[in-house]
C-alpha cells in the first residue's frame, strides 16, 4: 500500500493543482482524507453519492474527481450530503479534486487530450483566467466532414452540431465542460470552429451570425479525460490499479 500523502503530493505536482487559480469554492487538492494509505485509485467526473458508492464497491480508496465536494460555502450535512460523508467514512475513501488545472494542463488536461484524440494539432491557447489560459487552440488540416466523423467516433451520436463555418476548418478552439463564457472569445482568436461541452440555446444564433462551426459534445463527456489521465499516471507511478467510475450522465 502507498501513503496517502505521497500520492497527493504526486497529483499536486503533476496537475499543477495549486499553481493554477480556480473559482473560490473549488478547493482543489485533497478534500477528504482516509486512514492514510492507498491501495487502488479511481477517477470520476463528479463527487456525488452514486460515484462514491460505486468507488467503494470497486474497493477504491483514493478517488480523483473534476467537480469536487465544495462549491458554494457552508451547507447542512443532512440527507444526501450526510449519505456522502457516511459513504466516505464507512468506505475509507479519500477524495482528491482537480478542476481548472485539469482543463488547462497542456499534457493531461481535458482540452489537450480531447484535441489529441480528434487529431487536432496544438497551436496555442485562449481564455485567460487569473493568469492561466484555460482553452486550447489547434490546427486542422482536413475537412469539416472528417472532423464530424472524428467527433462521432469519440462521442457516438451524443453531440450537437451547428455548422455555420468553413467546410474546411483551419483553426479550432477546444474548451471542455461549459463553453458559455468562451464562445464569444472564439471569433477573436481567428478560429472558425469551436468544440465544447455544453452551451445555451441562444448560442445557436450566435454561431449562425458569427459564421462558426460549433460542436457541443456534453459537459460530462468532455471532462472524463483529465481525471482518467491523472489517475492512470498516479497508479503507474505507485504500481497500483485504477478504475474509471462511470455514471450515465447525458448532459
TrEMBL record:
GO molecular function: metal ion binding
Keyword Metal-binding applies: yes
Coiled-coil annotated residue ranges, if any: none
Residues annotated as binding a divalent metal cation: 66-67, 103, 219, 223
UniProt cross-references to InterPro entries, sorted A to Z: DUF34/NIF3 (IPR002678), DUF34/NIF3_sf (IPR036069)
Pfam families the UniProt entry points to: DUF34_NIF3 (PF01784)
Keywords: Metal-binding
NCBIfam families: YbgI_SA1388
Protein family membership: Belongs to the GTP cyclohydrolase I type 2/NIF3 family.
This protein's name: GTP cyclohydrolase 1 type 2 homolog
Originating organism: Pelagicoccus enzymogenes
